[in-house]
Amino acid sequence: MAKVKPIDRMPELVEQMLAELGEDPARQGLRDTPDRVSRAMRELTDGYGVRAADVIAGAIFDQDYDEMVLVKDIPFYSLCEHHMLPFFGTCHVGYLPKGKVVGLSKIPRLVGVFAHRLQLQERLTQEIAGALSEELAPRGVGVVVEARHLCMEMRGVQKPGGQLITSCMLGTFRKDARTRAEFLELIRHN
Fold it and tell me: Which of the residues in the chain have pLDDT under 50?
């Protein structure tokens, strides 16, 4: 028996929202908007159902290296779960290997998986650190996320330009002030 694809109700809901806002969903500029919004929302939230283990799978390598590995200035875009408005910025991820390293491209992919969900920046930061720690079992992980939030800039307080900075330090990054300081210095160094 063929699997029946579920009906996508999102375009219908977007059309209803446009009408609730006082717009005419049938006018020329809005005719295709419900389908476009539906596709955009599906793309912006395609991180659901993706497991960190699957992103990293096949890219963990035995390596006798015990110095810090850092990928910095990883751009990301996400949607806040409170208003479904964008927040965006950069993410810095460092870890101290314990006999294993991960392929370089997997760290930005991991950031993207968690960013492509409705998020809180604080949770995004913890999820990235926790997933890398769980999958790689390093001596420590440090993650710093710097972002602008359009929910703060476009509505509410309406103060453009402010940044929220969050961090999550695990293992040696949390316990050893020198390791934490080295990580923070490296992400600030141009």
Answer: none
